[in-house]
Design a protein that fits this description.
The complex is a heterodimer of chains A (478) and B (511). By secondary structure, chain A is mostly helical. Chain A has 22 helices and two strands. Chain A is 75% helix and 1% strand. Chain A starts with a helix and ends with a helix. Classes of the chains: A mainly alpha (478), B mainly alpha (511).
Amino acid sequence: MNGLSLLHLAPILITAGTAVLVMLSLAVRRSSLIAAGVSIIGLNIALIMLIVQGISPSSAGSASDFFEIDSFARFYMALVLLSSLACLTFSYAYFKGFPDHSQEVYLLLLLATVGGLMLPPARNLPTFFMGIELLSVPIYPLLAYARQSTKSLESGFKYLILSASASATLLFGMAVIFAGAGTMDFTALGGIGLNATYMVVGTALIIVAVGFKLSVAPFHQWVADVYQGAPAPIVVFLATAAKVAVFAVVVRLIHSIGIIEHGKLLTVLTSLALASMLIGNLFALRQRNFLRILALSSVAHIGYALTALISDPEAALTTVNFYLANYVLTGIGAFGAISVIASPYKKALKSGDPDHFTGLFWRRPWISIVLTIMFLSFSGFPMTVGFVAKLLVIFDAARLGEWLLLTVLIIGSGLGIYYYLKSVLLMYAVPKHAHFVNMRKYWYREIDGIILILILMFVVFIGIWPQPLISLSAIGHW
Amino acid sequence: MIQQHWLLPLLIAIPFIGGLLSWLSGWIGKRIPRWIALITMMLTFALAIFLWFRSVPHHQDPLIITKPLWLAEFRFSWIPSLGISYHLALDGISLLMIVLTAFIGILAVTCSWSEIQRNVGFFKLNLLWSLGAVIGVFLAVDLFLFFFFWELMLVPVYFLIALWGHDRAGGKSKENAAMKFFIYTQIAGLILLAGILLLVHAYHVQTGHLSFNYMDLLDTRLSAGAELALMLCFFIGFAVKLPIIPFHGWLPDAHAQAPTAGSVDLAGILIKTAAYGLLRFVLPFFPHASAVAAPYIVSLGTIGIFYAALLAFAQSDMKRLLAYTSISHMGFIVVGMYSGTLVSLQGLMIQMIAHGLTSSALFLISGQIYERYHTRDLNVLGGMWGSLRLLPAFMMFFAAALLGMPGTGDFIGEILILFGTFPLWPWLVSLITFSMVLAGLYALILIQRVLFGSSPRQVVMALNAREILMLLALVVLLLWVGLAPQLFLDTSEPAMRWIEKIYTPTLGAWS
């Protein structure tokens, strides 16, 4: 690796370096402000380096056998960094009232971010595995961080067991492929294609494992419980960065190996998409806790993203990129709003409980508006970024003649409108009884509130004028 | 080169900004939002009138009309990669509807002056935003933009009903009525969206060019089956809002439980947007499918006229009675629209205006009665004749207008529709003429139950100046439309000529 390649790897290196710095700072003096401050500054530097490289013309090029930092990778690394920054900001406000040391949160988040940053540029199986492990393992203690609450412990435990099983499956699939093919590089595997049995078996195992991580139906059972029990800001990271990073490497893998052309595996992918859209929306109908609703709807959104992927055999990827960018933005907004409402940490950990939201508009109008717009964006209401994203997916699917996917997408969206609106309207109802713990009044003066309002402006602004983001998404391919 | 007419986006923007200011000032007190809302709507009305005077209609040679000619246009490129632009355009139909919207907006704001006491600012925001979105619906000629305003129209009305409505004694709550309204219209909106997207897709397949623009999509050539399917999608989307039997289930509940301003808004304007949608989109895009379906749709309309009239007669809640009369009058509009002759189309236009004015007036009156007696039950009310300075007189006038008394605008509308339809479907027109008897029935039963009979116990306030002024303005306008409608007819004539030219219905079984 020469000096130029190190520059390409800079975001990953800077993030890792920041993690080390935070560790050192903890040794010197335990202060949330210092730890959070160092983390945020470090991540911002990484993001700036990423953007600068993206703009400058002499930027594309593989850094090594392990990474390929092209514009596709940069797009998703930027999304991961944005999500991580948001999560850190929300965590800072959330863990203010935490009865124990909370500085490790920043450390663990940074480590998870490094993992997430490793995934989009990954170009062989070991990097893929390393990235997923580095992404998932720090999340286990993060989910269980509020250990005074059994729900948090339960959330962490559930995710640990399922994620570890998924990682084992992933490893097995990779082993099968390596045993048969003798190589781990995506491009080389693409040369072999999917004709050999070992390739199909290995790929199927990998799809199963990735399905768990992405909470694709029928591997989605864990989402509702995990999202409900975890500390709210961690869910921001889990729901957005963790999913998007894995999705990115999966896109690369799918297009390298050529799953889209393979009949049977394409059927598998289509079935997963259909199942996710249907099951995610149907099960969300029955939920009342806001976090559970969002968890199951995120299953549906991954289904929509898979539809976009399937409708894009030439790997132009504009729609997929735009849809995932929309998902990250709106996800940060929605989960972040719930996090802001739940901040600072209270012992009775009941974030997402509908009693907190009933009639919220009459007590705290502005945060209700934020959450309303985020929900509307998720449901695909016009003038939000979610609508434009869905429209792009619909057009792509129609162009390819994928009528089954299209019908299920529209049915799913229709169902989605019902439960999203039910939740939104709950906030405007006149509360019949007062079972809530009222949130702080001046949330918009604190850092997490400011970031939330920023996200809101992006969601609305991009919804009204999506052309720049569409153009940006069009650049993100290899 | 399109001459950018900045007045058009201004017409939409003013209610939105006014609504926002109302809400924000609502935290200061109760009085300021009311005045801000009133000034906003008066400004909008003034601008609409100004636009009306300034617009010079093109006199089109009927032989060479191929596309509609707009009186004013405004275009702004928005999402080029999807072919979406912020394109507003005005012709005679939309001009008249916008003037009507602005006027009814003034009425709605004025009538809720004292009725609404809680969260006045937020109420005015919802009201004004709904009106702004309606103006957007009338102006949008980009289908994406149209759909956006269409959806936006409904959300504030939901809040108006759910938060400031009246509960039904011993029955379902106002939230249920609001939710019913919302679900009906949302599902219809989804079907409409499916139709829009399929139409855009068909155009894209045909020309390789992605566009949501009205003028482009008029060129789409569709096979008979595809045209019928798409027409049905659009039609159902609009039919639910009109409403056409059997999609009318939401209207009586919504009216019964809405606050007065909500009802005025709903009956006066919102249901007219559906008629406008049919005129603007269904007939021009799918003339052949509409022609084939015309006999059936007209039958549905006729059934609606009779069924709703009979149900109106049977109601004991005053507002539900008026709601059913609205459905009945909309049946006339369906008949007028699908017969497609110039006379009936012009009649349809007058009917829309006149019905907007008449039903607004009657809902205003019912609101005033409710404010005084706290009941709308016809069995309980009665004997108002002689008390309540001027209210009985106004009520009698508007009830006469409701049944189509000559001299009022309703008469002109109904007669023109019937005259225009007769050459095509004489049997149908003969049948519908009998519905005038039913109209007389429900109007008279309304008067009889409310104004005559035994008098109620309490002594209540007479009408104050604000209320008299509103009703007087409506009387004057209704008489103007009824006695001298030529001004209105001239404005909408070019647009109606174009529709007449492109759409000729199949005669079917009724001729």
